[in-house]
Amino acid sequence: MADAFVTLAAGVVFGIALAAPPGPMNAVIAEESVVRGWFAGFRAGLGAMTADVIFLALAAFGVVAFVERFPRVRAAMVGVGGLLMLYFAYDAATDVRSSFLGGAPGGAGADPDRREATDGHAATGFRKAFVLALTNPYQILFWLTIGVGLLRSGTLDVLAQTPYVGGSLAGLLVVETGTPTLVVGFFGGIVVWITGFPAALVGAERRIDAFAPAVAALSAVVLAGFGAVFLARSAGLLLG
User: Structural domain boundaries of the chain?
Assistant: First the structure.
């Protein structure tokens, strides 16, 4: 029982550690949260997590490995992801402009409680994050490597997989893989993040009037940067 609890807790830590670092998914969640409210941000997070569930199922049946065997398919997906990120960056920049023009319905100038109750764009955030996640090379690569390892019997150095700081955390939390408990904990950690991150952003926005346009602008920059990198990488793979 104690081992199962440790494995579950490790899965939660793993899910949070992978969901929390800055990147295109969190840029979309942040923009949706500060412009349209907590529910829209949460729905965007659910969109990204739904893509992970699909990748988990594909990994279990070995389908994800198809992408790895065909480099041009992978390159095309990277290119599509880059184009989508540039499009969503433009959308985020439009939200910044709307915020400074005096708060269009659902914008930063609107009352947060009213915005959450009346805004019908939460589903758009879900679709945006879902489609972006399906073409995100980082998520595809994760499920081709580490994600597949979650399903096989063995061990996993959980904190060593944390983006940016994993090297300094290696060996601190090693658990057995191939158990449903670890997978449940992993997705539980993602749920914790997509619930708490939008709530923290909305809470900060209510205290700082300029917070919404600043976050939307940062989201636009992050998405544009990743989009440009992915397009360049796609061109290199296709022309190389």
Answer: 2-239
Q: How far is CA 37 from each of CA 44, 57, 71, 196, rounded to the nearest angstrom?
A: 11, 31, 39, 13
Concatenating the DSSP letter of every residue in the chain gives -HHHHHHHHHHHHHHHHHHSSSSHHHHHHHHHHHHH-HHHHHHHHHHHHHHHHHHHHHHHTT-THHHHH-HHHHHHHHHHHHHHHHHHHHHHHHHHHHHHTT--TTSTTS-HHHHHHH---HHHHHHHHHHHHHT-HHHHHHHHTHHHHHHSSEEEETGGGSTTTHHHHTTS-EEEES-HHHHHHHHHHHHHHHHHHHHHHHHHHHH-TTHHHHHHHHHHHHHHHHHHHHHHHHHHHHH-
Question: Each residue's pLDDT tens digit in the chain (240 positions)?
Answer: 667 888 888 889 888 888 887 788 888 998 888 888 899 999 999 999 999 999 888 887 877 666 667 777 777 777 877 788 787 788 777 766 655 444 444 444 444 444 443 445 556 889 989 988 888 877 877 887 777 777 778 887 776 766 666 677 777 777 778 888 989 999 999 999 999 999 998 888 776 666 667 777 887 787 888 778 778 877 887 776
8 A C-beta contact, residue 83 and residue 231: yes
